[in-house]
Amino acid sequence: MLSDPTLDLSRQAVFVCLKVGAPLLLVALGVGLVVSFLQAITQIQEPTLTFVPKIVGMFAAMILAMPFMLATLVGFTEALFAQIGAGL
């Protein structure tokens, strides 16, 4: 049985979103865990202390992962336009 092209396209779009967002989310998770661990050790409970390291870490991760993210998005867009051109 053939699957619906809309479901295939939706599945691919969700997978691309996960691939593009995963590096930044994993860096934010790692930095958050390290900062929380350091706050627990030193008992410095400043809620704004986590923002600056997360922002710096995510900015660095975005710069490092940008070629991968761009290649993933371009590949998906090319495949999408090819499917539209073929009549989906």
The tally of structural domains comes to 1
SS-based class? mainly alpha
Low-confidence stretches: none
Number of helices: 2
Using the CA coordinates, give the radius of gyration.
19 Å
What number is the mean pLDDT?
90
The topology string of helices and strands comes to HH
In percent terms, what proportion of residues is strand?
under 5%
Q: In one word, what is the shape?
A: elongated
In whole angstroms, how far apart are the ends?
Answer: 17 Å
Count the strands?
A: 0
The helix content, as a percent range, equals over 70%
Biggest sheet record: none
Give an account of the 3D structure.
With 88 residues, this protein is mainly alpha-helical. The protein has one domain. 83% of the residues lie in helices and 0% in strands. It contains two helices and no strands.
